[in-house]
């Protein structure tokens, strides 16, 4: 049984757009099997047409290209550092990251530190900073370099987390997501209480961000939680009366005072209603979240007009979701380890706790970092939960199916 802590946030009108997690990949076998089992709708992310690439500040040249987005820069300067990082991910053990070569060195530095030491060009530094924004919702100065390698390794490299190509993170779109509301534990059973009622069971898996746990977790979990920064991301859905007119609606931009957006994708519904999805991330999300909604809207529409042309101003409706203000998440898209945390506290991620023989497991948001396969949100949730349930059933047959 899956209990949901909140109503799923969906922008409604004559059609629907998911304001939460929406992408899965054909390489995510567990979640795709579950999707088929329950009959959820999956359809490919649209990518046909021109892409927009704009880094170097608001006055830099805006480039368009037709190759896949988040190959990122058309410049060859980006290729060498990316392959260097992807090569390092091949030597990372996801099960035991501290056993990897140079693990202590990499966990002692931030992604920003690595960039300053090993990357010479400003443009490539901006590209990597954008990667941190889009993948984690955080600045490069907040992310352990080893954590980036560990997070990217199961996917086959950083671009696989970002691209829309077959097997990559944004290959398909899907509706879904689950959360747990609250729990109570006694000597025999677990009692889970939600707004819809109370359920008694033998074991509980809580897919809740560690920093929202109440009552407080044990000391080692608390220490880990204090340094598990949650990303800051605002998701926007903007519906339009017309189709794309030559653009794929994929934009990668360095955020600035004038442009709050980091990345956008096409979000046209399965019914054919045109829409665009965009994300305000990292420090820009912190800055813009306190401004009036009208100011954010005007800045976003102005940026879209700049990149896509005047047709972008004739939108039908805009909807936004600031996940930092969400009661049951407190941020988006994931929790990230700061330098030193993998070295000393990473085992706490998988360690169960509880007063009795049936433990209560806590995991970071949606379970995405507690598994040995791809670190994707929905996939992490499904795979981790399935593995935990099977482990309990094998260890304690009396729990039953």
Automatic annotation (TrEMBL):
The keyword RNA-binding belongs to this UniProt entry's keyword annotation: no
> Per UniProt, which keywords does this protein have?
FAD, Flavoprotein, Membrane, Mitochondrion, Mitochondrion outer membrane, Transmembrane, Transmembrane helix
Which residues belong to any copy of the Amine oxidase domain?
17-347
- The answer to whether the entry has keyword Cell membrane is no
Q: What EC number(s) does this enzyme carry?
A: 1.4.3.4
Membrane association type: Single-pass type IV membrane protein
Q: Which reaction does it catalyse?
A: a secondary aliphatic amine + O2 + H2O = a primary amine + an aldehyde + H2O2
Query: Where is the protein found, in the record's own terms?
Result: Mitochondrion outer membrane
Give the main localization category: mitochondrion
Q: Member of which family?
A: Belongs to the flavin monoamine oxidase family.
The name this protein goes by in its record:
monoamine oxidase
